[in-house]
Specification:
alpha/beta
């Protein structure tokens, strides 16, 4: 039985999520669906549209997506069958790329596209509010990188070579998160996380960039393992 892979691409606004989706669509063979997903608690139930003037949908189609949709959903529909019974999902495909919020609660591959840090920015922050003198300030993920800890593939997307050093530090910290027991306990809780992770620095607009090639190779492995 042939099953399609589900790949979720998250990250803050402007980080390069759509650029990564375009790269995936260009690199993968066979029909692939792409959806821009938005959690909207003002909705009473999930809503699917496909406006022709939507910028991300237009980019998906131009990059080769066989079907595209804008899928908005309230938190109450998170993990429900609403996405699977959408019109988009009636089309045959080898894979489905979900950009933005995740309406499913699970995927075969979780990707986080991160921006390079600002000059005074770090991946980890310290929570100090409410502590008594004997307590240790615990580490937390900085707000702009929220969700990066759950990704299986992290891509720090460079806009220029001047950002490479800072991007490399984010990658090093993502890797350290899995190896430093105290840090791991702070971020994930006592049980921690041992999910394998690939983390790279890449210029997603450059087809010859080694980091971009490595990131796409990891994503394509997930696609092939699920859809073959």
């Amino acid at each position: 039985m042939r099953e399609r892979a589900l790949i979720h691409v998250a990250g803050p606004s402007g980080s390069g999520k759509t650029t990564f989706v375009e790269a995936m669509l260009s690199a993968a063979a066979g029909p692939i669906l792409a959806a821009r997903c938005i959690r909207d608690n003002a909705l009473r139930q999930a809503r699917e549209t496909a406006p022709t003037n939507h910028p991300e949908l237009r980019r998906y189609s131009q990059a080769g997506a066989s079907g595209v949709a804008l899928f908005a959903f309230p938190e109450s529909d998170l993990g429900s069958d609403a996405f699977f019974i959408s019109k988009l999902m009636t089309d045959y495909s080898r894979a489905v790329l979900l950009e933005g919020d995740n309406p499913l609660g699970f995927t075969d591959l979780a990707v986080f596209v991160a921006p390079a840090p600002l000059d005074d920015e770090a991946l980890f922050a310290r929570r100090t509010r409410g502590l008594v003198a004997a307590e240790r300030a615990k580490a937390a993920i900085a707000e702009r990188y929220t969700g990066i800890q759950h990704a299986q593939l992290v891509v720090v997307n460079l806009r220029s070579e001047s950002e490479r050093k800072g991007g490399g530090q984010i990658v090093a910290d993502v890797v350290r998160l899995r190896k430093d027991e105290e840090l791991c306990d702070d971020i994930f809780g006592f049980c921690g996380s041992r999910v394998p992770i690939t983390a790279v620095v890449a210029n997603l607009t450059d087809p010859d960039d080694p980091g971009r090639k490595k990131a796409l190779a990891r994503a394509l492995r997930a696609l092939r393992s699920r859809s073959s």
